Amino acid sequence: MTFHALPQFIEKQFLAIAVILSAAALAFPVSFTWIKPHIPLGLGIIMFGMGLTLDFEDFRDIIRKWPLVALGVAMQYLIMPLAAVGICSLLNLPVEAVIGLIVVGACPGGTASNVIAYLARANVALSVTMTLAATCLAPLLTPAIVYLILEQQVEINFWSMVVSVFWIVVFPLMDGLILRRLFRRQLEPLLRYFPSLSIVVISLLIACIIGLNQKTLFALPLMVLVAVILHNSIGLAAGYGVARLFRCSKRDARTLAIEVGMQNSGLGVALAVKHFGAVTALPGALFSLWHNISGVTLARRWRADPDS
Question: Are 276 and 210 a contacting pair, CB within 8 Å?
Answer without folding.
Answer: no
